[in-house]
Amino acid sequence: MKTRKLKDIEVSAVGMGCMAFSHGYGKIPSEEYSIDAIRNAYQHGCNFFDTAEVYSPNLSGIGHNELIVGKALEDVRDDVVIATKLMLHSVGFRKSVYDEVLRHLEGSLDRLRTDYVDIYYLHRMGGVPVEKIAEAMGRLIDDGLIRGWGLSQVDVDVIDAAQSVTPLTAIQNIYSMVERDCERRIIPYCMEHNISFVPFSPIASGLLSGKITAETQFERNDDVRNWVPQLSRRNIEGNMPIVEMLKDFANKKNATPAQISLAWMLHKYPNVVPIPGSKNKERIIENLNAADVELTDEEFKALDSKLNKHKVYGHRGLGGF
Question: Is 313 among the catalytic positions?
Fold first, then answer.
């Protein structure tokens, strides 16, 4: 697969979000299936895998997803790039920020069966100043426990404050054809400062795959699609012109709508590395194959121009999980 750089870390042009094996899309598959799906993605050319300490069924408990990722990739650890995330709302009594971050990291290292993490993100901003987080991350880099670090769901002011203390490797924010807030300031800032941008939910929780309709019934338990704004029945109907536009481009390129949506952002920004997620083996490979879908400049301009003319129904933005 084609590769890109997260600062100085080489990764496959399309990575893999692993959350769905533990949370967010209804009933989770067996551990055996999940491990096989991750290994299959690796064999297909993906070397960039994203997880988090909080990814567990119903977000209850810690580490379910990291355990799966660790088991799946243990034998190829030196050939893959693993990103995980910590939640830090506050710091314990008489503890330093570094001590708390290290405690979280040590738990992740144990579950991931490794002695270092390639990219360590702060999952969401809490009550700890980002400058203190950045200082702790710098020490972890010096300690050899992480290779780089990042932030998730943050705006430019937070990014800039962190960057001034310890240079960032990546920003992981929501971004897709129907979530484009980051184009205004965040992605340009990242490009200017050599920070990679890692979009999560780049296919808008499946909306841009063309497989969701207003009649689609999502699972009732632990399925984020029940509250994703673009996926209410009314908003699905409103967003169908975008989906139909994607289907039209996909037919012309012998690709799928999901692949076109990923190819669009890969063409648009050289520092973007999307991490689509799925619990379905076939869908995972479909997403990874988007790296082979090349848009000409003329095709991209036509696609981008048509997209700009469509109204998007529903908005998630940087607020919320």
Answer: no
